[in-house]
Amino acid sequence: QRQDALDWTLLGDHAPLVASEEMWRQSVSLTTGEPGSDSQLSDFACVVATRIASRLHRAVKVEVFSDLSRFGVRLSYFRIFVEKCGGEAALKKLNTFEVMEQFVKPQTEESQLSLCEQLLSDGGDGPAFVSTAKVFLSHAWKFLFLDVVDAVERRFRGSADPDPVVWFDVFSVSQHKAGERGFAWWNSTFL
Question: Could you count the other beta carbons within 10 Å of the beta carbon of residue 16?
Fold first, then answer.
């Protein structure tokens, strides 16, 4: 798998972008785990996807190694998302499902991507907030979205990493394709 990743060559409007051994070392230095592990390959995919996105002039779908993205967003992005949705007043009484339906799905409707993939594809500051998730956030769709955000912020306030990369299904999974998997799959995949 590693060699396949290192052999990627992407041609665009400019000189080829080659996924190099240096990029591999860069991504590995950010992770822990065994050399060549899935975690390191996912981190490497994020590095490559970020570099691709920085070279693109238009939004495109960035493919990843797995059909289930390991991309997450930095905890600090949650507050940026809240502001982009109109601030706390706009989300005050909305549960997580309603926020997904009213804000995430419309934002990703055209691309059909997850919000994480959309952020990578759009360029700008987005790629700085997306990486391989180190934290899995479990929540109930009926809980108020702002309560979920407040709870996860409180959990990491004062910790060694106050801005971890969080896998949050609302952002990490394409909400346009989430229904393709049955309850049994979702119920057993993360155990």
Answer: 9
